[in-house]
Amino acid sequence: QVQLVESGGGLVQAGGSLRLSCAASIRTFSNYAAGWFRQAPGKEREFVAAITYSAGSMKYYADSVKGRFTISRDNAKKTVSLQMNSLKPEDTAVYFCVARWMQHTTTRNWNYWGQGTQVTVSS
Length: 123
Description:
By secondary structure, the chain is mostly beta strands. It contains no helices and 11 strands. The strands form 2 sheets. Strands 2, 4, 5, 6, 9, 10 and 11 form a 7-stranded mixed sheet that branches. The relative contact order is 0.32.
């Protein structure tokens, strides 16, 4: 049974940083694209970032986080991380880790989702 477990969320002041991590119980994790979505109260779940499978040579970001967030992966540890810098109150949301066989997408069509971790940015 595949599980994605996020950690690292919390409360931070505007301008601060947080690092989210996601541990994947996927035997062949390197064959999966990985990414992050977020959902703010009263809003739809939206794409944040994605990284391609294997070496993760390609990375994709939503315009709203480009230049501030960095996604990375460690296939040996079966983890995907999201470094979030220069955080803004509008980044407040529940953040979800996702995984998909081979192919990434910016839509919500991912095979596996974590339970989410809360990020709150105070002004």
